[in-house]
Write a structure and sequence with these properties.
This is YdbS-like PH domain-containing protein. The chain is α+β, with helices and mostly antiparallel strands and 217 residues long. It has a domain of 131 residues: Roll (PH-domain like). Helices cover 46% and strands 21% of the residues. It contains 5 helices and 7 strands; from the N terminus they run βααββββαββαα. Strands 1-2-3-4 form a 4-stranded antiparallel beta sheet, with helices on one face. Strands 5-6-7 form a 3-stranded antiparallel beta sheet. The longest helix is centred in the last third of the chain and has 54 residues. 18% of the residues are buried.
């Protein structure tokens, strides 16, 4: 059986994945695991209740074995970027949903699940039809739902901060461009002011000097 710590409320850090085989999981460089678990160990109880009595006629043994193998070979993971699900005994069925696609999160518990402390979290995506991903029979589904909602909100805040930083950079570039344009304009105006311009008085003085020179001759 898995470590009891994996069957409690969600925890952060790599300690919660110590007893899980997550070789199938491929994460990005800046992606971190927030929570990981198998289904709750008590989720095999219904199969035991049905399978043990039937084991006397050998029919119940496959039921119990299938339930246990499904429990051992199912993993659910929440990271800071999305949700992952791995199911399958002989083969692997891996699903992944990024937080940017998540539209709705809900959880449910049957009467037995509520009494034993497990339930399911269902995730719907924008543009999808119905539930796209389901964490079945996990411990404390309400806490997992809250964890997912917090990670989605954190991702939105990070995205908004990134957009704000980009806007700040663009604003600084515009300020620099305006300063350069202003400097170029001022230099052009200064160059025109230094160019000598003949005035009416200068022209008149030149004419008087010319006439005086002719008279002297």
């Amino acid at each position: 059986m898995s470590s009891p710590s994996l069957q409690e409320e969600p925890k952060t850090g790599n300690g919660v994945t110590a007893d899980l085989d997550l070789d199938w999981l491929s994460l990005e460089d800046d992606e971190e695991i927030r929570w990981a678990s198998t289904p709750h160990r008590y989720s095999v109880v219904p199969a035991l209740l049905v399978g043990v009595p039937l084991s006397l006629v050998l029919v119940g043994i496959p039921i119990v074995a299938a339930s246990y193998l499904q429990y051992k070979n199912t993993n659910y993971v929440v990271t800071n970027k999305g949700l992952y699900s791995k199911r399958g005994i002989l083969s692997r069925d891996v699903k992944q949903i990024g937080f940017e696609k998540v539209q709705n999160i809900s959880y449910s518990q049957s009467a037995i699940g509520s009494s034993l402390g497990y339930g399911s979290v269902e995730v719907s995506t924008a543009g999808g039809s119905g539930v796209e991903l389901r964490f079945r029979s996990i411990p404390d589904p309400a806490s997992v739902q809250e964890l997912i909602a917090r990670e989605i909100d954190a991702g939105k805040r990070d995205s908004a901060d990134g957009d704000g930083d980009a806007d700040d950079v663009l604003a600084e570039i515009l300020v620099e461009l305006r300063a350069i344009r202003s400097a170029v304009t001022d230099d052009g105006a200064g160059g025109d002011a230094e160019t000598p311009t003949a005035t009416g008085e200068d022209v008149g003085a030149e004419r008087t000097a010319s006439e005086t020179a002719r008279e002297d001759r």
